Amino acid sequence: MAKLTRIRALPWLLLFEALRTVHSHVMDDLSPRERRRVTEILRASHGNPMNVSPAQREELRAIAAKFDVKGLGRDLMPHAVSHARRRGRRR
Length: 91
Known about the structure:
Blueprint: H1 2-9, H2 12-29, H3 32-45, H4 54-65, H5 69-90
């Protein structure tokens, strides 16, 4: 129940901006072929890591290595900081 409360407390605009930033990074960092392959593996495994074969796991690791996580964090940071400031003022 506490988890649901935290989700409700998160402003929807902040969530939308974060998702838009993640989408932008995925589209920039991965080729259409790589995105399609990740989707195929996730659909076949139904999102369960236990249903992913070792070969598929290696393939996912190779694709994930191309993703710029540091850049994504840098782009998401302003949203988190602004949310923390606004939240601090409400108390």
